[in-house]
Specification:
This protein has about 325 residues and is an alpha/beta fold. The chain is about 25% helix and about 20% strand. It has a single domain, classed as Glucose Oxidase, domain 1 (3-Layer(bba) Sandwich). The longest helix is centred in the N-terminal third of the chain and has 12 residues.
Amino acid sequence: MPEARPLEEALAEARRKYRNWGRWGPEDVFGTLNFIDAAKREQAAGLARHGRAFALALEFNRDGPRSGDRGRGNHIHTMLDTGEPTPQGFSDAEGMLFMPLRASTHWDGLGHIADRDMAWNGRPRAKVITGAGDVVTGVERQAAAFVSRGVLLDVGRELADGELPDGFAITEEHLRATIAAQGTTVGRGDIVLIRTGQLTRCRGSGTWDGYSHGPAPGLSFATLGWLHDTEIAAVASDTCGLEVRPHEFDEPCFAPLHQIAIPNMGLSIGEMFDTDALARDCAADGVYEFLLVAAGLPITGGVGAPVNPVAVK
């Protein structure tokens, strides 16, 4: 259902309630990743009890999730040298990868979104984003930060027998119900992974049509309070955008949850995480927490960080 109140009223209220500017000092470049401390990482390390590892990244290739528009949003991998052998039989192959930073599994950088021309922590966007990239909060600065207790919330499984329909808005009540059904907890410093099942559906259909910009299940704008109050460090999902599409306002808008979460709250958002194999394992043993190591590539000035997150149980 669309929000009953006007968009600008909802955005203004969310800024007032959930803005974290100055919370960690004027020079901060981590945002809610500050909730992860040494004790949290020590706790997370103890969750790797059995040595089962799950890679959560989609493959980086030409036929990836940004397919459409002749695939120009996907990765282009080309070989520079196929490794013709020398007389003694030595071969040395070399390739090159060209890709948009957010073409597949990635973290949005803190400079990726601005709100009314203001970036994270109250900085003018023009002083953060230049021709050299994000010169203040580039993703290279958070390269070691994404290590914590991971929690999978398999909302698709709990609410819809595996797959939420496109356009389904996940509310705070849905999140709490999933947590209760799974017998897990969510709290300060956790990295929360939300499985909607949309990726499963796309994989089964053999096409990415609509995945990037079409209707999608995702978080309701109203979950911003839960995201803020739980003090989680980051949140990611199996969709291309995290929040529900179409958006919940009658007025034209684009990614209103992002508009508050990233530049105002300082919350790191991950997209296109492949949680299917992990979800099957969690359902099998009833354990939905794990060590999550999800460091993005330290691309200087990057406004997005390609990543191969690994969950270890």
